[in-house]
Amino acid sequence: MTEAAAAPRSAASVSARARITAVPDGRGGTALPLLSGAGPVAPRRTRSADPAAARVTLVGAMSAPLSGDRLALEVRAEAGAALRVDGSAATLALPGRTAEPARYDVRLEVGEGGRLHWLPEQLVSVRGSRLRQHLRAEVARGGRLVVRDEQVLGRAGEEPGRLSSRLTVRYGGRPLFDQQLDLGPGAPGWDGGAVLGGHRAVGQLLLVGTEERDAGPLLARPLGESAVVTPLAGPALLVTAVAPDALRLRHVLDTALTFTSW
Amino acid sequence: MHLDHAAPCPERHTASVTLPDGRRRALRVGLGGPVGSGKTATVAALCRALRDRYSLAVVTNDIYTREDAAFLLREAVLPPERITAVETGACPHTAIRDDISANLEAVEDLEDEAGPLDLVLVESGGDNLTATFSKGLVDVQIFVIDVAGGDDIPRKGGPGVTTADLLVVNKTDLAPYVGSDLAGMARDAEQQRGALPVLFQSLRTEPGVLPLADWVREQCAAWAATHAAPDAGTAALPA
Amino acid sequence: MSGAAALLVLADGRFPAGGHAHSGGAEAAVRAGRVRSASDLAEFCRGRLHTAGLTAAALAAAAAAGHDPLVLDEAADARTPSPALRRTARRLGRQLMRAARATWPGPDLDALAAARPKGAHQPVVLGLAARSAGLGPLDAAQAAAYESISSPATAVVRLLSLDPLEATAVLARLAPAADEVARQAEAAAQGAVEELPAASAPLLEITAEQHAAWQVRLFAS
């Protein structure tokens, strides 16, 4: 799937794939039988604060993706495994030598009783860049997934590139959440009062598997003027926020992550 | 479809007389009139006068708040599940006349969830003299004006004053203070309305809402008599 | 186009399906100061058209093309994270269903009304209504795309006392973009339901919940 689009490739562009698989180690912890990748997406096992969970940090040449690049990442937390994936630095989407947009495809899979926290650093859409990213997650009934997804439109004071980002989540084999943002010059109306209204950072925190919670009914509530917590139609909670910059966006999402106690 | 029985409106999109289960639906009475004429106070008084005799519910149409519904709730004239507020998008007359879908849904939901009902009062948001209820929404309508709004209103006429099944001239106790000529209002109303009835009312003095409550009772009785049984040749469903 | 006049009836702002009480997020945008003029309205509508409008148009086109309306209803839920917007979509869907069954009755509408008595998502009902009226997927998409901009434009005339001629000029200038969105939606409706557009607008989602909690407002959404 991630290799589906067949367009002429520039010699300068990169195609990279990384894979992480987490399984229970049989002693109450989580093992990583598969941890592969190189170049722009290099996963490294790092120290986990949670003894039951494995932690992987995406490090390396974070100047990618350049226009024309194709990056793919597959992460699986199998039944009973607990995995946290984070990043060492923000990812910059940069202009390349080709007009072809870069593609970044992420596939997350969570088995029954598995836990996966997908907490990469921000994606910064740099002037002149073109990136299409699609994160697809498949969560088995009884699995839990946390996704943080932050997009920053341009470096400080800079016009952004063109960024299209889709987040598709299925739970128990049924559609749970599907949303696409199309931002930056060329995306019609992206900076008007319906979409970003002058904000330069947008982010979401998605918590899937809320039916496992023993708390009361999940109610929608605003978090200040520019963020909201909403229960989805299925067992999940979404925080949506816009902010003037990356720092203030992270502050809102961190606050939300704390109160949800995940 | 449904050619084998007499139902004129087989779909449930208009004011069909029967509910999907074959029972007769409640009589729907609309109360309209200008802002401040005392519609909400009249509805509250009617609820108190009729709630022991009928199973009743109220739909309010506020202009920009849920204040009328909140007033009725605060006054505890009916249990909360019997009061529904419809939002009208700055156009109260549209919601009772041109696009009645939200009001129909409110009435049907009340029948489903608080029913069976004998009577539903639909109060319009305060509007102008041309605002009348669609016949697809209510069976009879009452237009409420008041003496303080100007004693020339009956003379000016307009669809509300001339065609409502009942014209209520409210707040008659204020007439001496605002210099309104009640006799003149009665003459003008008769000229505009012919044989249609007019009721002068003050909720602050005896007999208060009772004459209006009596009129509503007559309407309920007529409704029950006209649509007495499933075989009365109305919109009966086959057995 | 299979029946231009039927499409005009369906897309008429006076079609009695409850739309007049809704602003499509414009009331919240006006209160936040994001829409103050005709040019703000144009950018608001452009953004709404290419996000919520495209998503709705694709669902409508897919329903008109004969995709299972219950599968589409589930897809619409997944594309509508705000509970306030889901409630609005279902309420408007129920009101449209009533009007559609009165105007173009048919077994598809009856079946969906029975399966979703409290209302299916409005674009799904719109697509079925179009189908029942003898219209095609492109017609359904066109009605949905136009509605995504006409609703805020009408509301802003009332909210800001904006010159109605200016507001209508905004719609006229967006007409080619609305046609293009409808074509995209129709093309997408030829594929699988899970691949339908899911374009969204963060501020519409965020402010919908704030608006739903207001004590005083002119519009229901």
CATH fold name of chain C, please? Urease accessory protein UreF
List the quaternary state of the chains: heterotrimer
Q: Specify which chain pair forms the largest interface.
A: A-C, 40 and 43 residues
Number of strands of chain A: 18
Q: How many alpha or pi helices of chain A?
A: 1
Q: From the helix content, strand content and strand pairing of chain A, which structural class follows? A: mainly beta
Briefly, what CATH class of chain C? Mainly Alpha
Major sheet size, sense and barrel closure of chain A: 11 strands, mixed
Gyration radius of chain A, in Å = 18 Å
Structural class based on helices, strands and sheet pairing of chain C:
mainly alpha
Low-confidence stretches of chain C: none
* CATH architecture label of chain C: Orthogonal Bundle
Major sheet description of chain C = none
Uncertain regions spanning at least 5 consecutive residues of chain A: 1-10
Count of domain modules of chain A = 1
**Helix run count of chain C:** 10
SSE ordering of chain C: HHHHHHHHHH
- The level of helicity of chain A is under 10%
Subcellular location (chain C): Cytoplasm
Organism (chain C): Streptomyces qinglanensis
Subunit structure (chain C): UreD, UreF and UreG form a complex that acts as a GTP-hydrolysis-dependent molecular chaperone, activating the urease apoprotein by helping to assemble the nickel containing metallocenter of UreC. The UreE protein probably delivers the nickel.
Keywords (chain C): Chaperone, Cytoplasm, Nickel insertion
